[in-house]
Amino acid sequence: MKEFVRLAKLIVPYRAWVTLGVALSVVTVLANVGLLALSSWFITSMAIAGITGSTLNYTLPAAAVRGLALTRTGGRYAERFTNHNTTFKVLSALRIWFYTKIEPHAPARLEAFRSGDLLSRIGADVDTLDDFYVRGLVPILVALLSVAAIVAFIWTYSAALALADFAFLLVAGLALPLYLARWGNGPGRELVESASELRATLVSHVDGMAELVAFGAIGRHEQKIGELSVRHDRQQRMMSRLSGATDAVMMLCAAFAMWTALLVLLPQVGRKVDGPTVAMLLVVMLGSFEAVMPLPEVARRLGEIRAAAQRLFELVDVEPANTVIRVPAHPAPLPEATDIRVRDLRFRYGRELPLALDGIDLDLPAGRKVALIGPSGAGKTSLTSVLLRFREYEGGSVKIGGTELRDLSPDDARSLFSVAAQRPHLFQTTIRENLVLGCPDADEEQILHAVEAARIGELLRSLPEGLDTEVGANGLAFSAGQGSRIAIARALLKRAPILILDEPTEGLDGPTARVLIDSVFSAAAGRSIILITHLKFGLDAVDEVVSIAHGRSQ
């Protein structure tokens, strides 16, 4: 239940739209029931008048019928427009809220989740919560208000009939949904979880297609996907059977209500009620079930909605690890100077894991160049993660321009750095869009200058579409070396005072590596540069070489 309370709180800012949507829905339901009831009364009265030769003023009923028909049509359109507009607003706000909640956990706490699972939570699970408003909250409120109005109307003619209608509505609109909520909760949860696992496995299958083919494992992976599909289909069939059984019970309740009305009213015809009134009340009894018709489906979907909400809140409420950054309540202003001073820096990836950085010391005056060398796993990239505020350090000091790094807001701290990562991510868009990621207002001349400095100008000139060439998923349209140089050009474009180059020459021969380093250093003249490498290329171009081993500076 607490999940639904939390979801309801997210809708509070849109309470005016919710109120309008519920009001329009109630008007539409009552107009529809009123149209059917008045039409039945009118047709029966006209038939009796024709048989008996009596007179009947049909002008007013005919006008009322037309009025109710227009109200029903206009109300339906307005209700759909309002409720769907509200749904889109709520979903948009929910996605933004969810993203802002999980962003501080990246990357430290999100690494425990599969990328396909994260995609499923952000996409499919949020979409599932669409049902909470438009197929959950609204139908419940509309049912309560509409049933109260309809039962009150019937009471004016017969208290017994009103109580009978209310009893059948309770069975169809309360007992049946509660039963479904109890028995549909498990299958609904399993349906969401199996769908998520299937999506995550499919994403993993596509991303790792080359490795699966190379190692001859594609058959086993396809078999796993087939098993997950069969499981998901089985759960969908189970939910469909529940839905079918629900519809059948709902129709039986409506039929029993109408037969009860006949048994109550027929003995009273000619004494307390006339024929047209009987026809009207029968239709009102039948039409009253329109108000509760969506409720069993709401209950059936509760399991799915609750499971989706729990999966989202699980990510939002994840306990921060010691590596997750702490955002200062009152961030310090950005320092004017950009010199870096690191003393006795200590950091570990988990409480039970050994120190990845254990006493790092580093000085980088503004405008100077330093190379961090050492074997793989020595702690070079870990130092970069700390500087970028991706990870929280547990001891020591990191100061930029005299200001402690953790006293700055994470965004302010990152604005001081531009990074060309060892394994850069290229988004599935054009080269141009990837390049201007950190500098959206870069003009053509600036882009071409960065491209030439990263030594990929010749490559781009050979492409028919040049900068507008698509890089493919994860940059697979280019080699690792080409992707790395696109990332270097992207880092050069960002106007940050400190440039971090993580293994920029990996995979390059000596002469090519030397040309690249000289070109990048020339383009970054005036900036502070941290060159991370385990090779010897470019070391003579830096002002200082710091050796790191076992998390310590030598």
Which sequence of SSEs, written as H and E, runs from N to C?
HHHHHHHHHHEEEHEEHEHHHHEHEEE
- Count of β-strands: 10
CATH homology superfamily name of the largest domain:
ABC transporter type 1, transmembrane domain
Strand content: 5-15%
Number of domains: 2
- Please give the count of helices: 17
- Overall pLDDT score: 82
Radius of gyration over C-alpha positions, nearest whole angstrom: 34 Å
Q: What is the rounded distance between the termini?
A: 57 Å
- Find the structural class using helix and strand composition: alpha/beta
Large-scale geometry: elongated
Stretches with pLDDT under 50, minimum 5 residues: none
CATH class of the largest domain: Mainly Alpha
Can you characterise this structure?
This protein is an alpha/beta fold and 554 residues long. The protein folds into two domains: 315 residues, ABC transporter transmembrane region fold, CATH 1.20.1560.10; 214 residues, Rossmann fold, CATH 3.40.50.300. It is 60% helix and 10% strand. The strands form two sheets. Strands 6-7-8-3-9-10 form a six-stranded mixed beta sheet. Strands 2-1-4-5 form a four-stranded antiparallel beta sheet, covered by helices on one side. α4 packs antiparallel against α6, α5 packs antiparallel against α6 and α8 packs antiparallel against α9. The radius of gyration is 34 Å and the shape is elongated.
